[in-house]
Structures are given as C-alpha cells and as structure tokens.
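Work Package 4 report. The design task specified in the project plan requires that, given a folded chain encoded as structure tokens, an amino acid be chosen for each position. We show below one input record used in the internal validation round.
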C-alpha cells in the first residue's frame, strides 16, 4: 500500500495514516510494523534493491553467456522505475551508497570485472538521474548501449 500511495503523493506528504486508510486498516495498524514514516520508506528502499538484486540473478539464467542482454535487462528495469515511478526513484537515489557494494558484487557474479561492474553501476545511476530529469528515454538507452560496447574493451 505504501508503494501505491507513493505514486500519488510526494515523500513529504506520505503518512502512515494515509497508508493505513488505503489498506483499509486502523490508523494505528502500520505502527505495529514501522516505528515511523522513515522506517516505512527504508523498507520500500530495501524491497526495491532486493528486487534489483533478484533480477540480476534472474537474467543470468534467462540470458546465459550473453552479458549485454543481462545488463540491458537490468538497465531497463532501473529506467522503468525512473520513468514510471519517479517518487520511488528519488527515494532510491537517496540510498544508493548503502547498496552499491551489493549491486556491484551481483554484477561481478554475472561475469564483469570489478572495475567494469563499478562503471556500469555508476553509469546506470547517472543515466537514471538524467532520464528522470530530462525524460529523454532514447538518449539514455543509447548512452547505456554505448557503455555496454565500451565495457567489452
């Protein structure tokens, strides 16, 4: 419910009371799970980064031995969040540093060298920020495509 409420309200306007109302529960029910709004938002961030890590594992078997397709699928997911859920993406950007090591390690597991994984992750974040700010999806996708080509070298 918080995820859906976040699509309609800005982070500053989101409240546990709103989430409870949307879920059809008492206004005190969310407090049984979350101390405050910040704890709820952190849970949303953790959920999204877990989904990204899960996707990283999924693409390795969906596109075995084809790193470009794997990285493109990861980038597509990330850009989808930036385009379709800009408030959630803003929330994620505030916590990128906390999850960078896990994401880079997952990319290394796909077969990238450490430096390549760091470059890809950094480029993904930067391209996502650009995409969110400019809403220029074709430019951003071509930028990632170029980065993928450069990573081969």
């Amino acid at each position: 419910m918080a995820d859906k409420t976040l699509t309609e309200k800005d982070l500053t306007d989101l409240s546990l009371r709103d989430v409870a109302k949307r879920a059809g529960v008492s206004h005190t029910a969310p407090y049984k799970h979350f101390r405050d709004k910040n704890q709820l938002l952190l849970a949303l961030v953790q959920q999204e980064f877990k989904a990204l890590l899960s996707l990283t594992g999924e693409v390795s078997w969906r596109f075995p031995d084809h790193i470009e397709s794997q990285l493109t699928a990861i980038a597509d997911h990330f850009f989808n969040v930036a385009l379709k859920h800009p408030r959630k993406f803003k929330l994620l950007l505030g916590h990128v540093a906390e999850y960078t090591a896990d994401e880079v390690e997952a990319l290394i597991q796909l077969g990238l060298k450490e430096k390549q994984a760091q470059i890809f992750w950094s480029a993904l974040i930067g391209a996502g920020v650009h995409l969110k700010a400019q809403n220029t999806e074709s430019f951003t996708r071509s930028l990632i495509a170029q980065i993928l080509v450069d990573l081969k070298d």
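Residues 37-62 form the longest helix (26 residues). Validation will be extended to a larger panel in the next phase.
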